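We treat protein structure as text, and this decision shapes the records that our systems exchange. The tokens are whole numbers drawn from a learned vocabulary of local backbone shapes. Below, we set out a record of this kind in full and without editing:
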Amino acid sequence: MKYYLIAGEASGDLHAANLMIELKKEDSHAEFRFLGGDLMQAVGGCLVKHYREMAFMGLVPVLLHLPAILRTMRICREDIRRYRPDVVVLIDYPGFNLKIARYVKTRLKIPVCYYISPKIWAWKQYRIKDFRRYVDRMFCILPFEEAFYQKLDYPVAYVGNPSVDSVTQYCKEASHRPDSFRQDEGLAPHVPVIALLAGSRRQEIKDNLPAMLEVASAYPGYQVVIAGAPGIDQTFYDLFTRGYRTKVVCGKTYPLLQHSTAALVTSGTATLETALFRVPQVVCYYTPLAKLAGFIFRRFFHTPYISLVNLIAGKEVVQELFADRFSAKAIHAELERLLHDSAYRTRMLDDYEEIIRILGQPGASRRVARHILKRYSIGRREESEP
């Protein structure tokens, strides 16, 4: 079968790459074209556009880059039309992907699958109309999403969480090789580590990393290590790390978490990955116009939490310091508890175990691949029969 995949950011690149690996296992004739990143390219196929050219966050950056975004959308539509895949697989990234879904479904009549639901349970529930019209099958990765969509009379499949797959696979492979992370990165062998995961986009890093560095560097008995985001050059981090004793490690977030005592993390997939590695954390997320942003969240959003950890648990497991709660002082107070309040750490780690139980067993990518093959390869064979 011929597959066209679209991932618009680093986490989507990771999950799409894992799905492609499983599709190749299930379909020996699998061919891929995609908008994505280095991980997808490493699996094989044709990279049409890198997500670095697409990953714009916030109203102002999107408006400033609107001509480039529209140009990419035109290129993508035309490329799908020429390629004529058997199925299009969209990974999150709703602002772009739902427009592509509409074109593919109404103009090209090609099946559309959506892997990793956009967070319409938080806001923009009106998008359910687009899913009903343009998406043939939705694969969800958060346990509570199945019940949410059921209330909206839109059947979906919970397939497990791909972060569980990634972390499980990493830990399995790591157990069979010598652990040289500290030595390779020039870290002291016995000094505990505070990890800083400041986001995958430049604007996120610019907004969050300065406060994270200020707070973490106030603990001289710890090593401060920044997880470098895919596609972000080391020189960009240099703008913020001058004057601090810190390291930036690129492409090694999992080894970093494996060696960390605590972490400061922006909201997103990284909060869940940190929990899966059982690292106590505080969620830090700066927003412009903090008081207004806090008011809008409390008044108009349909969820009390922003982090995947708390959303899955259905309660406050980790502190979410965002909008009007975000400050260096507040981050410092929470990090102090993580490092020195053993009872507090233990409660958080116990809650992590419950979250891991709720998520279930690994195998999300394999389940999605089998769903797609079972549903669409049959239709393809029927169409090709005389």
